[in-house]
Amino acid sequence: MRLITSIIATLLSSPVYAQPQAAPETLFTNVRVFDGTTPRLSAPTSVLVRGNTIAAIGPEAVSATTASPQATVIQGNGRTLMPGLIDVHVHLVFSSMTMMSLLAPDLTPESAFKQAEAEAGRMLLRGFTAVRDVGGPVFPLKAGIDAGRFPGPRIWPSGAVISQTSGHGDFRLPSEPSRRFTGQLSRAEKLGATFIADGRDDVLTAVRENLRFGASQLKLMAGGGTSSAYDPVDVTQYTPDEMKAAVEAAEDWGTYVTVHAYTPRAIRRALEAGVRSVEHGQLLDEPTLKLMKAKDVILSLQVLIDNNDSMDENRRIKRAPVLEGQAKVWPLAKRLGVKLAWGTDFLFQPEINGDQNQYITALKPWFSPAEILKLVTHDNAQLLARSGLRSPYQGRLGVVAKGALADLLLVNGDPLSDIDLLARPETSFAVIMKDGVLHKNTY
What we know:
- This protein folds into two domains: 25-84 and 397-441, Roll (Urease, subunit C, domain 1), CATH 2.30.40; 86-390, TIM Barrel.
- Helix 8 (199-212) runs parallel beside helix 9.
- The chain is of the alpha/beta class.
- The strands form four sheets. Strands 1, 2, 3, 4, 5, 16, 17 and 18 form an eight-stranded mixed beta sheet that branches. A five-stranded parallel beta sheet has the order 11-12-13-14-15. The chain has a three-stranded parallel beta sheet with strand order 6-7-8, with helices on both faces.
- It has helices at 2-12, 59-64, 99-103, 109-125, 139-146, 179-182, 187-191, 199-212, 240-252, 264-273, 286-294, 313-336, 358-361, 369-384, 425-428; strands spanning 25-33, 45-50, 53-57, 72-75, 80-83, 85-90, 128-133, 154-157, 161-163, 194-196, 218-221, 257-261, 277-280, 298-302, 340-343, 408-411, 429-434, 437-441.
- Helix content is 34%, strand content 20%.
């Protein structure tokens, strides 16, 4: 983690970009509101933002600004005002780099984060005002955004993924032996990408190290993966005792553990240990989904698209059953009433980052436009809220309501009638506001 500390120091000493400042008040007039939950737009109304929160909606919003000549007024002209988009499964550093660039011998902290900084800014301009980063050395990036060094979404960081030896987070090259036998950290561990932790004591230390750097939730690898070299998708990872250790340490800090897993066996073990959300789960069966509902565990799913041309043969083979399973698990989980969240999970394919919004509209086979909008705003915000006091940004997100944080989009059109508007952020989003600050304003 010394490298992480070095990068944070470098970022915080770099020049501040010309971040736009929040107006004392911003008044949206003649807008139709999607409030995050109601499956229809409001009648034309006004919304007042004061500082970084929504201060009033309706006639009260207009009357509150009559004595405030400094208010910025945005004429909505009947367009849709909605909450900012939320992606709860991103890897901001890893999605901005190819595997080859990550493994390059001349990799430096500056080069590792330069692309991630730029991608964070582009993500904000795609309308994503908040994300949950579920694995990677993201603390320096978050620190830079929060300090106003460069633009980007709010970040709920997990920090280094926690993995057993030969687990989904074991990124060692064949030439890198185990730290336990040699005392040498692997390159990925030095970068802050992963903790290879075996046994209760190692897991406790890994969790507490991430919490020390500001993790808002913890990510444990509970089963095999498609992008890792050593573990088949079907394997179960971590013993019950190891997993319970992570949950206990997280709960002592008032937060939760989420797990990477696909299979019923791996997910059942995680549920018994007390995890609060599951990432992926495309191979889940009905009994395990019912158990998730009973335990109030959120299923954080993705819509994977068969963009395998740039993948190696081993990853394509491992991905095949996952791609097949997602068409079953989305409608089944919905029918059973399991709490759902949505994310993208892009890894080592920077060429697809610009397609992030299109992965929202890929939900159309299973959800109505109103259900999709609710999922990527209100419902995703409910998962962020599970971090409790470890949340880096206190306040309500995912809704347009009095007192909520002012993360807002002004949309050229009605996404409840045309959900494909979300897939065209450059032309569809006239205004992008995060924390009361206008990062795009073309109204």
